[in-house]
Amino acid sequence: MKNRLYVLFGLVLVSCASMKVGKVQVTSVPSGAEVLSFYGKSLGVTPLTLTAEMILGATYGNKIFLLLQTPGFMEREVIFDLHGEDTIEVNLTQLDAKYFTERFMSDFSQKGNEMARELLRIHGMVITRNFDDAEKNLELFQQTYPAIAAAYVLSADVYAARGDLVRAQAYLNRAYSIDKDDPVVLMMIERVKQRSNR
After folding, report:
1. CA Rg, the chain, in Å?
2. Dmax of the chain from CA atoms?
3. Which of 137, 131, 133 is nearest to 160 (CA)?
4. Which domains are seen in the chain, by residue range?
5. Could you tell me the sign of the dihedral formed by the alpha carbons of 121, 127, 128, 130, in that order?
6. pTM for the structure as a whole
7. Residues 11-41: pLDDT tens digits?
């Protein structure tokens, strides 16, 4: 049975009753995107056929976690169960001024979605590696919205990119205390742990 999963935006989760190690083909637009496992190990670049060993190495909690990234495009996280033969097609979104101002900003009303809009703006800073501004804005955001796990994950991203894994872990612990079921939080905790053990 072939399961075809199209990832158009953000995080996609497909559920089924049980996991079977089969064959997974991963493609992306544009091609040449790096595919990382749950533990942060590079598996290759798209188009890529995952071996059984790769699949097992990308498994956590009976689910497969993959991260696709390429310079100049928004990274994509994919979480899914295996169905025997799977084809994953991922459209990566280019990061530019138009993306942030038109694709996101206009989608949120000024009052009801101020928090989400600000978090997306800061996320853009992290993705484009503008870490100093991201750190300052995250501190202000966390003071205003202290119970948003995603904000602490972004702080962990900043410190992990700078090589400060101790502070990254501290922010992830805070995110985990807010939302213990967030798969992105769980994935980041494991990734930082793996880097710390190297």
Report:
1. 17
2. 49
3. 131
4. 2-91 (2.60.40), 97-196 (1.25.40.10)
5. positive
6. 0.49
7. 444 433 344 566 889 999 999 999 998 778 8
